[in-house]
Specification:
single chain, two-stranded antiparallel ribbon, globular
């Protein structure tokens, strides 16, 4: 989603006049402005640009592979899965380009924004973060539910799932994510600059209110529910395929269908695992930060939570880079090659071991014969 680079604070020190017997209390907004003014704008976008370029390249390669597979394969269930997968990769690509370009602009620009008063570009970036964060998770959940129906109830799947309904489901998913992203523009939550002030997200630390906490809970709840639903559906699909494989061996056509189902479920498990690893930290840390800030318990732990949020968004960024590799590597052709290479290596080691044993046994037999002759 983003290509971010941590940068060090400048050595600028501010001189503050001391007042005798007057305690000074800083509000969260004032602390944010002071921290921002003590931070030098990023001026080395090389790492961010490299990450963005790699993400775009991987997503384009995955899109080409999926487009060729969709044009070549005419089976309805496979075509539906490929349509969902192509939409997921296209969404990842769009999110990587849009949000990455906005973050790079912050890196190369000398404009110093006010964290307490986000501008239009910050609001747009925050909305893109939420939209392009929810869309892949919603799509992964929908793909898992579609495959679960196709594996457990193939006749019902053939009757209900069509290309037109799939496209309608995609439109509804994008619309739902867009509605959630637009909620802060209707006074439910707010977007603001996040440390180190190069990206924008839901207000989770600086002056978090009840509406901000509700919005964070909604965002994290929807995302975590999607991951949990995908886990349940993929587990059911996997167990059904294993039981069917162990139960009977049927005709070659059915074995081919099961191999396609197995390939799709393996890819879905890869998507689910990648999404869980990459998105769970940001979702959990964001919810923890907002809760602690709303209760007023951040205090001296503010820097710790800032570091956790930075780590979370960096891991979320990796999701859009790793997702394409699920389709590139977890295809039947690639898995067959890996299996053949592994089997060949195992057979080679086995033959070598057998030949060594044969040489040792023949040597021992020759020694025995020589002893008898003597």
């Amino acid at each position: 989603m983003l290509a971010m680079q941590h940068y060090n604070s400048s050595g600028i020190t501010a001189t503050v006049p001391l007042c005798n017997h007057t305690p000074t209390v800083q509000e969260p907004e004032v602390e944010a402005v002071v921290a921002f003014n003590a931070t030098r704008p990023p001026n080395n976008p090389t790492a961010a640009g490299l990450t963005m370029t790699l993400g775009i390249l991987f997503n384009v390669v995955a899109l080409i592979i999926l487009a060729k597979a969709y044009n070549r394969f005419r089976r309805r269930s496979k075509a539906t899965f490929l349509l969902f997968a192509s939409s997921l990769v296209a969404t990842d690509l769009a999110g990587h380009v849009i949000t990455g370009a906005l973050v790079l602009r912050r890196y190369v620009s000398s404009f110093r924004a006010d964290p307490a008063n986000p501008d239009g570009s910050c609001l747009f970036l925050g909305g893109c973060m939420v939209f392009f964060g929810l869309c892949p998770l919603f799509l992964g959940c929908a793909m898992a539910a579609e495959r679960c129906l196709g594996v457990t109830r193939p006749l019902l799947h053939a009757r209900l799932v069509t290309t037109a309904r799939t496209k309608m489901a995609l439109a509804l998913i994008w619309l739902l994510a867009l509605c959630v992203a637009l909620l802060p523009f209707f006074s439910l939550g707010a977007y603001t600059y996040q440390y180190p002030w190069t990206w924008c997200f839901i207000r989770v630390m600086e002056g978090t209110g009840a509406m901000d906490l509700a919005f964070v809970m909604l965002f994290s709840g929807l995302a975590l529910s999607s991951l949990a639903s995908a886990f349940v559906c993929n587990t059911i699909s996997g167990i059904t395929l294993v039981r069917a494989r162990l139960k009977t061996r049927s005709c070659s056509q059915r074995r081919s269908a099961r191999s396609h189902d197995t390939e799709m479920v393996v890819q879905l498990v890869g998507i689910m695992v990648t999404s869980c690893i990459c998105w769970s930290p940001l979702l959990v840390f964001g919810l923890m930060s907002a809760t602690q800030s709303y209760r007023g318990f951040l205090g001296s732990d503010r820097d710790t939570y800032r570091g956790l949020m930075m780590m979370g968004v960096r891991m979320a960024t990796c999701n859009q880079i790793l997702d394409p590799w699920v389709y590139i590597l977890l295809r039947r052709a690639v898995l067959r090659k890996i299996y053949r290479i592994t089997k060949r290596q195992a057979s080679f080691k086995g033959s070598t071991f057998r030949s060594v044993r044969w040489d040792i046994s023949s040597f021992q037999n020759s020694e025995k014969n020589c002893t008898k002759n003597i």
